[in-house]
Amino acid sequence: MKYLKLRKVIWGLSVALLISYAAAIGLTGSASLENSAQAQSNDIVPGAGKIRGTFNPSDMWGAVNKGGIRGTVSIPDKQAGQLIQRNGDEWRNMRVGFINSFGGWVLLGVFVLLGIFFAFRGRIQIEAGPSGKTMERFNGLERFTHWMTASSFIILGITGLNILYGKAVLMPILGKSAFASMTYLGKLAHNYISFAFILGITLMLFMWIRENIPNRHDLLWIVKGGGLFAKGVHPPAKKFNAGQKIIFFTVILGGASISLTGISLMWPFQVELFGGVFAFLNNFGLSLPTELSPLQETQLAQMWHNIVSMVVIAIIIAHAYIGSIGMVGAFDAISTGQVDENWAKEHHSLWVEEVKNKNSPAE
Fold this sequence. Notes:
Blueprint: H1 2-28, H2 33-41, H3 57-65, H4 87-121, E1 134-136, H5 140-169, H6 171-174, H7 176-208, H8 216-223, H9 242-266, H10 274-281, H11 294-322, H12 332-335, E2 338-340, H13 341-347, H14 349-359
Antiparallel strand pairs: 1-2
Helix pairs in contact: 4-11, 5-7, 7-9, 9-11, 13-14
């Protein structure tokens, strides 16, 4: 009886051993457990003959960190197979490094140059003195368009600078809670007032493009510095001189670029701008990437939006200076629309002749 029980136990252990051995073969791909263990200790991939494996966790995560490991996805955006997107680090470094420094130096530079210019030139006067006669320079629609565009740009500039520099400059002064509330409201204003700016530059384009086409008088104006640096120098100019034409195209082209990238940031991952632009530029010998993910498009839009905005802000600050405290009589053009006739003769002599010939009775 005891013998039968012992035989059953031995038989059960034998069956369990065979099942375990079969499972080991299935898992290791080898009928020899000893060889499999030895293969793993020698970095030989089990079940792969004599092929040695090179798997190293540190190497794998290094490749992941560099963006060198990609998976496969079934969605249309194949870039989603990228496990780690290194462009994010590059974007952050660009944002807190170059863009912050670039913007700061640009703003500082324009104020320093204007200060030096004012110290040496002072306020530009009407050299012949006020005549007491005025001419209409801008009508009501033109002045409305100018102020709508200017006021919206000022709000956009202030709120944008707060987004860029406010955390470092204002938050220590206002405190986190007040700064967060102010920035949130500023962001809402930035988004919605941008449409007024877009409308403004569109109206400007249709109203003033014809008079801002470059002509032969512009070259002479540039050579003589517009008469801004010396008394008694008054190069001829039509309604808009070369300097004003530069401002015009800066506002139109720079504003359009800012507006397009701004729209793409308001609706991220929906508007793709740079892939097509890069493909076009590659026709001129460049080697820019054209297969960009929606995230990369958004990162590029944010960087371009900041850089172009800083350049336009600096140019507009110089324009505002000349149009206000920098030159007597200039501000009247966009406040009342009327300018002194002697001021017009000194700065826009060809335009004065055109107006007088147009208004003079035909012989």
